[in-house]
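Action item from last meeting closed. Structure (39 res):
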């Protein structure tokens, strides 16, 4: 399995997770925390 294949699978699974209401809320919270730490 190549690194590109691994990233493709990971992104695909994250997109499926983000399609659920709780997944979307989780990802938004994580993204906001990450953005506030890196600004």
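Sequence:
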């Amino acid at each position: 399995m190549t690194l590109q294949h691994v990233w493709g699978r990971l992104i695909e699974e994250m997109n499926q997770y983000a399609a659920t209401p709780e997944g979307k809320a989780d990802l938004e919270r994580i993204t906001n925390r990450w953005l506030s730490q890196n600004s």
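Note appended to the action item: Helices lie at 3-18, 21-37.
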